[in-house]
Structure formats: structure tokens, C-alpha cells
Design goal:
The N and C termini lie close together (10 Å). The chain has 292 residues and is of the alpha/beta class. The chain is 29% helix and 17% strand. Strand 1, helix 1 (15-22) and strand 2 (26-31) form a beta-alpha-beta unit. It folds into two domains: 5-172 and 275-290, Rossmann fold; 175-253, no CATH class. Helix 1 (15-22) crosses helix 10 (276-290). Strands 3-2-1-4-5-7-6 form a seven-stranded mixed β-sheet, with helices on both faces. Strands 8-9-10 form a three-stranded mixed β-sheet, with no helix packed on it.
Length: 292
Amino acid sequence: MYKPTVNSYFSGAGGLDLGLSMAGLKIQQSLEIEPTFAETLRLNFNHKIITSDITTMEVLKQDRPDIMAFTYPCTKYSAIADIHGTRTGDELYLHALRHIAVMKPEMYILENVPGMKKFPVVMEAMSKLPDYYVNIFCPIDANIWLPQKRARLILFGTRKRFNVNAPKSKAAIKLKDIIEKNADVQVPKYVYDRMKGKYRDLPIISDPRKGDLAPTCVAHYGKDRSTRLVVDKRYKMNVRPYTVREYARLQGFPDSFVFAGSEKQQFEQIGNAVARHVGEWIGKEAKRYFNR
């Protein structure tokens, strides 16, 4: 059975790369500009890791892949950007477009937030390339597999017509299954301040015993761990923040996966990642395309 090759861009901590690898694809290079994220990739993978700015990279000097996979930053497309007045899109998608147009891979894949659909110019550019057939799934929610609400837009572009199968509902991992027993967590004072209503919003509290889902893992959790809490009767007010390992499990990372950097940086990497199970579904469909 043929193992398609993949060049991954904006790779982050490697959630998509991990899922594609587990589906049987061969990652031949990952591009990640953040040094700590790139170090995490090096700690967990053996393929080529490029720490560079995509805006300065010449396409044809890279190894030719069967598949190009892009997860360009979603910050400017996300709903939270509305709060800060920064929901303006960005131009990094143009460099994804440049890579596809010059390399002309057999398949390209995009992952982003559903908010990208609010930018018709971006959607036109990424879905109307000549000589490609496109399948778009929106939303694909990680809660099919994991105890986390995480809706995403997934786009497949293929040179030949191909019907991508949507993921099938299955018995997802439960929140109680990812919680560390006897976790030792230092709870910042601001967590209890938020609980007491001293901030604009109250925290989102998930109870594993009730079968709750966790809210979407976010990158800024390392800066403010009061927004997402889990019920734990051993702690004051019966709640605490998630640990790094629990946060990683919410994204489908195995316990053997190593994250570089400080705790704050690890939460950022995990919150930015593609949920591993989503990557695995993408990879299985891509592999099916190449082995028809």
C-alpha cells in the first residue's frame, strides 16, 4: 500500500503531523517559525524540521510532496477576534496559495476555524484553484472523538474527483478518562477571583462525573488558567485548572509526547494544535485517495 508523502506548514507542536503519521502517511518536512514549537517537533519526530518564515521560502527548493498541509494561524478568523476588533483575516493564506500554485501537489489540505468562511476572498482563493476538486467539511468537531468542543473547517483539494467520507460518530473518550488522579495543581489567586465574579465572565466549569465536555482548548490558557476549570472536590471551591497533561489529552496527544519550553509555552502549543484524531481522519481519507 502506498504511503503518500506530506509537507506540513505552520506545523505548531505537531498535532496534525502526528495524526497523519498514525494514519500511515509519511511526513517529509514540517515548517514552524516558533523555535519552542519547532523544538517540540524535533523531540517527537525524525523527519526534517524547518524553522523559517514561509514568506521568504522559495517553493521549488523544497522536497516535492504528494500532499501539502496548511494550518495557518486562525487568530484573525476566530470569534474572539471580534471582541478585540482584530477579526480582519491575514495574508499568510496567500503564501499557502503560492506554495500550492507553484508546487501543484496531488492533494492539499487546510485546517482552520469555521470563522474563515466569513472571509469570501480567502475562501475563493483556497477553494477555486484551477485543476482541483474541493471537499469542504464545516464544522468538524473534535467531540466526535474527544471530550472537547472544538469545531473546525477542513478543506481537501485533489487533482482527481474524489468523495471524502465524513467522520463517523463513535464512542468518544470521556472527560473522566483524561483527568489525572491526585493531580497536584498550584491554583493562582485569580482563579478564585473569577469564581467570585471579579472578571467580566465566569469560568466554564466541566464536571467529569456528569459526562461534561471541556470547552475548546485555547492557546492563551497558559496566561490565564481561570477561564476553563474542572471539578475537583480536593480543591477550594471544588474546582481547579487543567494540568498540561490533561490539556494534551484533550487534544489527543499520547502521554509519551514531549512538549518543550515552560508550562506557559506548553499550554500555548497544545491550545494551538490540531486535535490528533482530526488529523488521523484526514490522513485515512488521504491515504484512501492514493490507494484507490
